[in-house]
Amino acid sequence: MITDARVLQTEFVPKDLVHRDNELTTLSAALKPLTNGEPGETTLLHGPPGVGKTCTTQYILNQLHENVIDLNTQYVNCWKDHTQFQTLYRILEGIDQTLDIHRQSTPTDKLRDRLHNYDGPPYIVVLDEADQLETTDVLYNIYRTPNIEMVLIANQEADLFSRLDTRLKSRLQTITRIHYKPYRSGEIVSILEDRVHWGLEPDTVTRDQLERIAVASKGDSRVAIGVLRRAARLASQDNERAISDEYIDEAVPEAKTEIKQKNVEKLTEDQRILYDILTEEGEISAGRLYESYRDRADEPKTRRMMRYYLKKMQHYNLVVANGENRGRTYNTSS
């Protein structure tokens, strides 16, 4: 039944992207000057999870590599590499400048100086989940380095900009902003149709069933593709030639659980402490949550940063907030 498993992965970048024409055009225009040896524009892609921000960025980078021979690019997942050292290391790694850098002993200043001395060809640095950076100083370091252009990806512009100091905020006021809205059901169906065409045998799934998946995904392409993949695997395991509605219904909660588990695994140490407390305690006030977090963390962050962490986890449906201000409570999502 499955002819190409790669196509059924959320990370797969198709040859043609559908329903993101405006976003692709804007991002391409912001980076196109690099093809003529001119500076591009710093760009911010923002919107909820599963709306194609990372995919469109990878798509444009692939196109640029086809048209520009002398071009460096690097993708950094700031949820994984969230400290200033980790982010700088990944950026320098993209231009082969880390051979003599030791993760345990090399001071961060050395990485920062090396970045500032970069004098190679145009370099595009993609900072995915940029609002996860431990410190936004790294954005200033990149911004003032010639020949390096940033593509920032975040859930909400306000969350990222609220942490910037006045100096950096003023410099980034004129960047190109691209807002991604959730996919409509019909758009999800189109995305799935392409995946079916390239990844499954003919007559494996009907359009009505794709619409069923689209409704269950609630505009999140990751969920939709995950449901399709798991339903196809369930049918294959039973040696069926087509996907039934029962397989889809079984795949929906499994796909959502898989995504949730991946998000939990991505949490930083401090975020994981907060999540574990909520899992153990159930609904809890912000004050009690911070007290428990402070007792467990080796280097606890401020209350403000705790609220920021919780808001980020809300975006990924890991945490639910109830009430307002001092009466607010938190719990894990069901």
TrEMBL record:
GO terms for biological process: DNA replication. SMART domains: AAA. Keywords: ATP-binding, DNA replication, Nucleotide-binding. InterPro entries: AAA+_ATPase, AAA_16, Cdc6_lid, ORC1/CDC6, Orc1/Cdc6_arc, P-loop_NTPase. SUPFAM superfamilies: P-loop containing nucleoside triphosphate hydrolases (SSF52540). Residues 39-174 form the AAA+ ATPase domain. Gene3D superfamilies: 1.10.8.60, P-loop containing nucleotide triphosphate hydrolases. GO terms for molecular function: ATP binding. It comes from the Archaea. NCBIfam families: orc1/cdc6 family replication initiation protein (TIGR02928). This is Orc1/cdc6 family replication initiation protein. It comes from Natronococcus amylolyticus DSM 10524.
